[in-house]
């Protein structure tokens, strides 16, 4: 099958992307809106950008007409937010937060999450999440669409504080099994950890000894 993305609709390309790029980690983002309303929403276009300083990217698609979603609008206004990692214990309530609630409604509080104060930013974090990363905005880049009507906002932020549940942390590393992260697949499907295996990164001489004779 050969497909030219320019010859099909945006939604068709979206389906191909989310069915190919997976599993995708989920950024559960809290922001502060008008009257200090805490907005909470999940996004699966999420990745690491840099380690020095630690930086993360989240892509927030825009609404019809190029209108920014509450998350992107709040971050642009306050320059602060918190990214939570989604796990099997929180995924049901996180999914509820994807409902298009009115801007004056705090999704986190409506679905039953508890809020905790952050250390470096004004935006609260979600108590039930095992990992919370306080972020300050580095840059927002309008992406795709047209200049007057972008398709999405690429939000890049610096992590200024990590909150990690004590039992996950071991000598600077995160226990993946205890974290029990959940990722997005295609459509409305989610996925958990399956079989885990390791492949060490080899030096060139090691590679030659192990695989060179096979080439």
Structure commentary:
By secondary structure, the protein is α+β, with helices and mostly antiparallel strands. The chain has one domain (5-214): Electron Transport, Fmn-binding Protein, Chain A (Pnp Oxidase, Chain A, Roll). Helices cover 20% and strands 33% of the residues. It has helices at 10-20, 70-78, 91-96, 107-111, 176-179, 204-211, and strands spanning 24-25, 27-32, 38-43, 46-51, 54-61, 80-85, 115-116, 125-126, 131-143, 152-164, 169-170, 173-174, 183-184, 190-191. The strands form four sheets. The protein has a seven-stranded antiparallel sheet with strand order 3-2-6-9-10-5-4. Strands 1-13-14 form a three-stranded antiparallel sheet, with no helix packed on it. The protein has a two-stranded antiparallel sheet with strand order 7-8. The radius of gyration is 19 Å and the shape is globular. Belongs to the flavoredoxin family.
**Overall shape:** globular
> CATH superfamily, called what?
Electron Transport, Fmn-binding Protein, Chain A
Intertermini distance: 30 Å
The portion of residues forming beta strands comes to 25-35%
The total number of structural domains is: 1
CATH-defined topology: Pnp Oxidase, Chain A
> What CATH architecture would you give?
Roll
Number of helices: 6
* Averaged pLDDT: 95
Strands in their spatial order, largest beta sheet: 3-2-6-9-10-5-4
CATH class division: Mainly Beta
Overall radius of gyration: 19 Å
Task: Please estimate the helix content.
Answer: 10-25%
